[in-house]
Amino acid sequence: MDEIQVVESKPLLVDRELPGLREAVQQLVVKEHDVETPHGRLHCIMKGAPKGDRPVILTFHDIGLNHKTCWDPLFDHEDMAEIMQHFAVCHVDALGQHEGANTLSTGYEYPSMDQLAESLPLVLKHFGLKSVIVGIGAGAYVLTRFCSDFPNMMEGLMLININPCAEGWMDWAAHKISGWTHAEPDMIISHLFGKEEINRNHDLIARYRHYIMNNMNQFNLHLFVKAYESRRDLDIERPVPGINARTLKCPSLLVVGDSSPAVDAVVECNTKLDPTKTTLLKMADCGGMPQVDQPGKLTEAFKYFIQGMGYMPSASMTRLVRSRTASSSSITSDGNRSRSHTHDGNRSRSHTNEGSRSRSHTNEHGRMDATANNNADQSVPKSTEVSC
To answer: In the 8-state DSSP scheme, what is residue 66?
Structure first.
């Protein structure tokens, strides 16, 4: 296998460039729209103008969040300025989840996850968009369903904490029992953050609990949570030669923090995707919300993902210098502790669609390792798992 050592040589954006980029990004035109759908109005925020034939970065948030609380820490990070100079951003809030949303009428039938996905082409049509690239949790599920149903409208996917499975009866029972003894905000917190994070990062948890309880419309939030809990399995499976399997056709980057409650679900999703088009990124020392916990690292990974799709070829990538060394054993970012939450046996992990080129990502020490198992038959697609 190859070990990719990443050495930081200089900042991704030099200091003298940052003020100009920040100022340019701050001056991007921001427009709020309510897009009519068969199920009601979707609140959307378009930042910047679409640029030629480039896709637009479209985001969809998780339960208990909206576009501001979910994505502002990432898109306000200084390293995102360069990306936003190249791509417009369209944030989509699920029905009734944006700040100041009116209470949905009694008896209103909230759309299912499938129906929310079916509403997204109307958003693209409203803004005159051709294709989009990002979702987290419930939003990741919606965008994956959208990509599966409308593959020509999706050029790439970055999915954070994606769970491809319906809620099992044991999960259902646990939620029912938990619902008798815990308020819904606490259940949402346990969905967004891992136990270690909840016990350790009290300020972060208190901030998000306060927001969920005081800034979200509780009636609307309950409907969205119930819709997510009622999701069905994503009808995707890893393609096998000779069998026309239903899977994602576009490049995909799966992201999860190593202490996230979604680790097992993300690994499970990885086994269902085309290993030649998928990268699984596990972020070390990171909880359930990488875009909040480590926005700089996630931005860097996203930039490499975008460049791998053929965009931003001249972007400021000089922060990293890659060197390859032969290795006969798996190396992880922190020595003896393995970051891979994988099962033994024949489950393979995913790698990028760039052929022999491996993407590199930094960790807290400026280095990371990508490993691939080359012991099996060379005719079977191999996959790599990246820890940073």
So the answer is: -
